[in-house]
Amino acid sequence: VGITYQGSHFFSWNVLDSRYIHWMRSMGLDRSLIVQEHDSAYDRKNPTLTRRDERVVDQILSAIEHPTHPRSILALQECSIPFIAHLRERIPSRFQLISYGENAFIIDKDNLKAY
After folding, report:
1. Distance between CA atoms of 99 and 45, rounded to whole angstroms?
2. Residue 75 and residue 71: Cα distance in Å, rounded?
3. What is the pTM assigned to this prediction?
4. pLDDT per residue over 31-62, tens digit each?
């Protein structure tokens, strides 16, 4: 879900924490990329980064560097701790990542100085 307001681009994304993979399977998503890229070694008690997590981080980085609609604020829900840590390592320095629990905001500090 996204919006453009006064030249700034915003979006919200439910990342789907891999801890909930059993719910996704029960909803008939066994053939989806969500389940296919879920690493079978993922342990709910000791979460690790999955291939799907890495793909989502790549897509977020692509969104914030988009050539015509670079995102200024991203709101992310259902993020695992490994996902947030990996994203924090990879975002450009002009962005601030703020997280609490399973939720995170990524803010383009340079773009929002005008507000």
Report:
1. 21
2. 11
3. 0.77
4. 666 666 666 555 555 567 788 888 889 999 99
